[in-house]
Amino acid sequence: MRTIHHMLLLLLSAMVFNAHAQSSLCERKVEELKWQMENARQYGNVYRLRGLNRALARVQSRCNDEGVLGSKRKQVEEQQKEVDELMEEIREYRAEGRSDKVKKREAKLQRELETLVDLQHELKALESMRGEAGATSSPSANTLSLRR
Predict the structure, then answer these.
(1) From CA 80, how far away is CA 68, in angstroms rounded?
(2) I need a surface site. Which of 20, 83, 97, 118 has the fewest CB within 10 A?
(3) What's the pLDDT tens digit per position in 126-138?
(4) Structural domains of the chain, count
């Protein structure tokens, strides 16, 4: 009887851990939204606050970790396409000898590459948070921005 009790306790603990692991990214998203809401309140931005309230309701009703990861992966893919398109434009302008256009596109490319790197870091952090769910997160993971 005692062994069955211990096995049930172990099984229950595993189920609780699993449930926590599945909701950790969504909880982070909720925390981020609440932080933004507090900032909007402090600055009296009622329109931003209204939008954040709607976003919070959507996250609380529909969020799951795969959705959070999928959304971030899609953002990385879209940003990569933007970078690829800019690189192609630069090649074309170079071939045409349009150095003025090349300079402008290179400046934009630099900004877009920085955004891409940021998104890739956020995705890696999200993936590692998911893998470490239930463990104590690092300070940098606590400050991760999920706004994008």
Answers:
(1) 19
(2) 97
(3) 899 887 654 444 4
(4) 2
